[in-house]
Each structure stands twice: as structure tokens, then as C-alpha cells.
Amino acid sequence: MKTRVIAVNPKKPQIKKIDQCVSILRKGGLVAFPTETVYGLGADGLNPKAIKKIFQAKNRPSDNPLIFHISNKKDVKKYTKDIPATAEKLIEKFWPGPLTLILKKSSIIPKIATGGLNTIAIRMPSHKIALSLINSLGNPIVAPSANLFGKPSPTLAKHVLSDLDGKIDAVIDGRNSVIGIESTILDLTTKTPTILRPGKISYEELKNLLKKVKYHPSLLGKKSKLLKVKSPGMKYKHYSPNAKIILVEGSTKNTQKKIHELIKKFQQQKKLIGIINNKNIKKTPFVKFKFIGTTKNLIASNLYKSFRELDDQKVDVIIMREIDTSNLGFAIMNRLRKAASEIVSA
Ligand code: AMP
Ligand code: MG
What we know:
The chain is an alpha/beta fold. It has helices at about 15-25, 50-60, 75-80, 85-95, 130-135, 155-165, 205-210, 250-270, 295-310, 330-340; strands spanning about 5, 30-35, 40-45, 65-70, 80, 100-105, 120-125, 140, 170-175, 185, 195, 215, 245-250, 275, 290, 315-320, 340-345. Belongs to the SUA5 family.
């Protein structure tokens, strides 16, 4: 299959180009498109055959359910049931935006998309291309991140092509996904709303609105592996580039020292080293430094892109130091810990 690349203006999506993509979706095809979080691989959410193709194209296990994307807050009533009052509050404040809610699903939602669960993950994105596509289709769009299973999520159309060229019908090139990491997933089917995946909408913001909210225990301690997973996606290793990632935890001064020790060690082993630099780390010859910014917004926005760029430069190891876990920092550290082969204390 030849994958078409369709350039669309992210500020003012051209209707003609959106319609080309919609006709692919109507025929049961797959179209990757930008959202404000990462690029998604979209299919008509009410067409089981099309949904099946997503799992095949990504090599995604069939028990790992997909997120439904809608273009209108009111549509949540069509695809869910028994909506609690907390959902209404959250929708009012955070939609359109990077917050996915887990609710009970209505009977029109195909089970193949929910991994057989009777719940649904649903959100309304804020990206104009995504909204225009869903709106013109008239059905919800299911869209996991548009990467091969286990790889970092794409934040540019070229990342999608490097994983899925020839396996999907089209990709919309709508420039970069600004947030850079996947949406927050909040389970509203539990007594206390539970964060299953941290993201841009932080614990602090949710707590502020709801008063009661908690992290799923698997996101917290070291015992995580022993706990029952709630979101099937949680049990898989994720977000990893080909290079081995080493995460260095500790104070700024100690991590600086530790990183230089690691550089020495790997240079002796003739390894090509990449450093993802989010504060000042003194440069060393023959090491590829990738500066991704000091604010959490910039770090999130550039993280996956820098994984992919260092992979393209064929580095053997990528070293990065921890950041503090307040607000968006928790989500960034969650992705880093999942991607890391080794976590070193400085
Ligand atoms: P992705 O779109 O690839 O970023 O992955 C979607 C995430 O949503 C996965 O981690 C899924 O496990 C999670 N998810 C989707 N539907 C549900 C559901 N009904 N209950 C819990 N988690 C879900
Ligand atoms: Mg994904």
C-alpha cells in the first residue's frame, strides 16, 4: 500500500483535504493525524473491520483498548452511559483538551475497540485538524498513538512515516504536536477518580477541581509490578527508542558527576553516547548532546522527538537526568521510567 502524505494547515484546515481523508475513513481505511498531544492513527470508531486494521498496522496486542475521539461535548452521551456528575465538571473545564475519561460504554461501541471491556476511554481533542476530521466523518474516531507498538509516540508526520509507511492509507502533515506526550487518563468508574496515565492535565489541577483524586498504585511505588493493572496498556513496556536509556536520579550536583562517570565508562567500551540535556551538563567531545529546554512544557514537547533523533544518529545509549515530579513533571518521569533500561541513583 502506498501511504499518502496530505499537508493540512493546522490553524485553518482546508475542507477539501479533510474531505479526502474522510472518504478514506468512510471506506474503512486508516489515516494518521495530528492532535495537540501526539499524532494518532485514526479509524472510524463504529466500524469494527477498520478498527481491527489499527491493531494489525501497529502490532498492538488486541487486549490494549483504544481511545475514542469526539468533536462535540454533547456526543459523550451517545457513546457512554451513567455519566457521573464529576464527568460533567471535568468536561466543562478541560474539554476540548488532553484529558481522557474512562466511563461506562453504550451498546453501539464495538467491543473490539475496548479490548472486550464494558468501559470506554473518550476525549475531545482541541486540535483543529482532529476536530475537523471527526466532525466531517460524523462518527467518533478511534486513535491510538500512530507509532509501532512499543516505540515512542510520534509528534511529527515524519515520525509516523518512519514507523508506518506502506501500512496505512494516509498521514496528515499538520506540523508538530505541541504538548508532546499522551493525554491524562482518568478512570471515573471507581469510587475515587483514579489517574491511570499521567499527562498534561496534572494531579494538582484535577485535585483542585474534584477534591478527591488518586494515582493508580502502579504509578507510585517500586512494588508496581506486583499490582493488578487496571488499564491494559499499563502492563506493556512503552515509549522506547532502540538505544538503551539510562535515567540518572539525584541532586543536580550529584547527577552531573554521575553522568560524567557514565560517559567515561561507555567511551571506554567504545559506545556512541547521546545525552538529553535538560539543565546544564558540561559538554564532552564525541558525545551527542541534545538540549531539549529547561521548562517542563518544553521537555515534554521535545522528549520523544529527541529519542527518535538520537536513534537516527545511531547512539548506543541515551543518558538523561530526572526532573522534579510536580505538575507535568510526574507525567514526564512516568514516560522516562517506562522507557529506561536502567535507573541509576547518583
Ligand atoms: P494510546 O492511545 O496508544 O496512547 O493508548 C490508549 C491507552 O488508553 C492505553 O493505555 C489503554 O490501556 C487505555 N485505555 C483505553 N480504553 C480503556 C478502558 N476502557 N479502560 C482503561 N484504560 C483504557
Ligand atoms: Mg500509544
